[in-house]
Write a structure and sequence with these properties.
The protein is an alpha/beta fold. Helix content is 48%, strand content 10%. A four-stranded parallel β-sheet has the order 2-1-3-4, with helices on both faces. It has a four-stranded parallel β-sheet with strand order 6-5-7-8, sandwiched between helices.
Length: 279
Amino acid sequence: MKIGYYPGCSLLGSSREFDESTRAVLAALGVELAEVSDWNCCGASSAHVLNHELSLALPARILALAEQAGITEILAPCAACSNRLLSAQQELAKHPEMIAEVEAAIGMPYKGTAKIVNILEVLDRLKDQIAAKTTKPFTKKVANYYGCLLVRPPRVVNFDRPEDPQSMDLMVKAVGATPVEWPFKTECCGAAFSVTRTDIVAKLSGKLVKDAVNRGAEVIVVACPMCHSNLDLRRNEINEYLGKKHGIPAMFITQVIGLALGLDPVTLGLQRHMVPVNV
């Protein structure tokens, strides 16, 4: 199996462990990744607020580069990246009169034919292989955190149930974990306020951490770099807000699966976490 790969900025920077664990797990499952050459930022949380044309041109260029390389399907592990790629692709499909303007901006033709998938969609296809190759079941209670962008807006992402998604729950069960019943699985962590308003992040992410612990979870499982950053990097602010130290780690779903497959923790980037992961 071969699939296009768009790591995006976070996976080569603050969330290198997501990239490392994604590559390691998919390689172990026989998946070849074809990285989009000369890719650029998708626009993240900023472009669509500042400049509408830019918010379309940045994702369109990524998709156009993939089309030129003959890539028909692109894995974008970052929830924000997959969301922005899907949003731009759908808007250009609805407003084809804008395509010429976008093509002029990016300097190449754009067709909008590539399919965009998130990491959970790809792992779901491989669930039988994952179950067959599990050698070290991940026998912990986990709170599965989908966040905002994997499931919203529903008409854009068209993925799972927007209020009570189940894909990650089923995935962790397949490798031996026990998901807790958790109503906070799609609540906001504070997102990009991580830089400008850490007090808001501490409050919102603090609610997530506190409730996960209260429900007996030993790990919070995520599939979004920003969610992981807020739950891991901002743990000191969270603990200060809660008035209590909470040591529950946040792990990427690819790290959980990688451990279950018997992969080395360093290969999965577990040493990069601010909150230690005991395996």
